[in-house]
Amino acid sequence: MANDPRTGKQLGGALLGAAVVVAALGYFVDIYDLVLFSILWKPSLASMGITGKAATDWYVNVLSVQMVGMLLGGVVFGILGDRRGRLQILFGSITLYSLATLANGLVHGVEAYTACRFVAGVGLAGELGAGVTLVAEILPASRRGLGTMLVAAVGVSGAVFANLLAGHFGWRAAYFSGGGLGLLLLVLRIGVAESGMFRSLEGRDVPRGAFLSLFTRRDRFTRFAQSVLIGIPIWFAQAVLMGLSPELAPAIGVAGPVLSGNAIAAFYFGLVAGDLASGTLSQLLRSRRRVVLLFLGLLTVAIGAYFVLGRGASPELFYGLCVFLGVASGYWAIFVTIGAEQFGTNLRATVATSVPNFVRGLVVPIVAGYRLVRDGSGPVPAALAIGAACLVVAFAAASGLRETFGADLDYVEE
To answer: Which CATH number fits domain 16-189+213-399: 2.40.37.10, 1.10.3720.10, 1.20.1250.20, 2.40.50.140?
Structure first.
């Protein structure tokens, strides 16, 4: 079904048009591949002879390298998305992370493992931003929040699928399947049209993808920084509270063993519900900013419950708390939409792709800070201190955020 991205006129069914479906499935595989290491780090490293504290340290090291790759890839793919088009970057990123994930299933040493996760990180950086930008530009203002909500909700369910598959077939098969699913997506590129807003820039003397221009004007830098900082608590919850749950759960007093894969799957199960709820609530309240503030408050409660109700809890109750954390982190759908809506067409892909990957890149100092405090005070005080800092920063950023619900996106940044 056709629609005019310049006027907003469309035929029925455009919400589930080819671009939305491909972006959603691409993000599904993106998340599947992204969380595999956090799910599989213990058995995969154990197969290479790395266990105990050494395995935890390698988990932090490899995860940090993957996130650095995403940070770099977010900048590169974002710039290319504004210069070459949303579609080229969408499918280029899928190809890169799929091949790297396939290679991951073949590694036998931690150095090769690390290298594959870096390359996969670079590739994983491009899919979400390109997909969200494309969807935001082809849907009318009244429905683009619903479109990005569907992309996010379908995408994050990839983590649940990853845990199920990894539990049944082993870590190498899980990497092979992730790479194969990504390559299968490439056949869907037929029938997906480029954004009309992007095409309208062709032949115009307008700078496109000028990443450094985000830092040359206070207004632009403020919008960019706020868009990044509101998402920090989500990745603190995933990388520290979920990824390091085998270390944190005994320290809290959970009465039984906890698997990081199950914790992450529970978190993402809740995240699907949270994304649907935040997207729907944003439509009802006609606001992005108020929903972000509401969910940050809910996330504060969920983090508190993780530590308070986790004392003496069974593993099953602990996984229930992980679901609650996921629901409270479900403003991710609004978060990625805000990044696309804050800037003009000539910088939109740059920002929409960079913002989620800057947040992911901030996992490096977050985890490093956790390790530093943990070595002196223990796991629980470290997680509480870092989590509190992330929440304070996010609340401050959200409080000054510009409202973009229903804003016209057909303009350029001068």
So the answer is: 1.20.1250.20
